[in-house]
Amino acid sequence: MTIRYFSLGRFAMREALSLIGVGAGDLVMLPSFICRDVLASVHERGAKPIFYDVDSNLQPKFLDPERKSKAIIAVNYFGFPQNLEAFEKYARSCGSVIVEDNAHGLLSRDENGNLLGQRTDFGITSFRKTIRTPDGAILWTSRAETQVSAQLGYVFRPKNARNIILNFFATIQRFTNFPLLNWVQSGLKSVRRGLTGSVVPSVDSTVERIIPGVPNPSRSSVKKFLKVNESVEISRRRNLYNTIYPEIIRLGIKPVFESLKDGTCPYGFPVFATADSQSKLSNLARKYRVTLMSWPDLPSEVLPTAPDHYKQIGC
Ligand SMILES: Cc1ncc(COP(=O)(O)O)c(C=O)c1O
Q1: 195, 199, 205, 221: which is deepest, by most CB within 10 A?
Q2: Which residue minimizes the CA distance to atom 3 of ligand 1?
Q3: For the chain, first and last CA: distance in Å?
């Protein structure tokens, strides 16, 4: 496996598409349940995104071999392994190349012990989502070192003030068990809801076309990533998931995934959050000192016809 580091998963994805040879006018197939900014990786290659729908298990409903794409993106949602069989069948039938989008699934494996993001010829992970770093993503490819552009230079990226403050609150919370970070985060969400009517940061449509910033990773983020104690981090995430599971069931909330299989390193606890479960989830989040997250904005093309389960899923 050849590894290249980037600042964002979107740059790693853009590079994967470039290595596949995706260019002007090509079609790239993505799940319609995707955060809208991922489309920028496709648009920056001059290609056109087309969508396949996923069911409530987050598996593709139907990958139509008549809709021939140059590349197809398979997402391991929340670090849970996507079943790749349907993708492999589709790719065989029309010559498309699979990119394993493992943005959420750092350290996660499938039941056969294969590391997510490395199960196909091209995979990405956005480790900045799992460990607290200002940036950081990985492109993995089975291509040889010599067939891939050299590692981009590292840059110095100062931590932004928001991250410094949140890290400070997180440290206090860890040592005192006082839920300072949770209070600050709920406060920020309330302010945002008051100002914009939504708890999710509002973004304009350019996010679907342009990846912000530069692709170069910062050295400090990569260093922090390389120092992660993998077994400690995996146990911490799995233990938290297993502790919360019975509470979720007791509260009558439906988990997105039936079980936590061997090898899965979950990004969070994905659930179907209906309007009446919101306050139960908030209480649970306070109890376990975790943050509630809604799925970010869907692509503008998908939003008007998005099924209910797309709108309910959060973690
Ligand atoms: C499934 C998926 N893939 C890729 C990305 C892009 O990662 P990044 O924000 O690091 O560019 C995201 C971002 O949320 C995502 O949810």
Answers
A1: 221
A2: 103
A3: 31
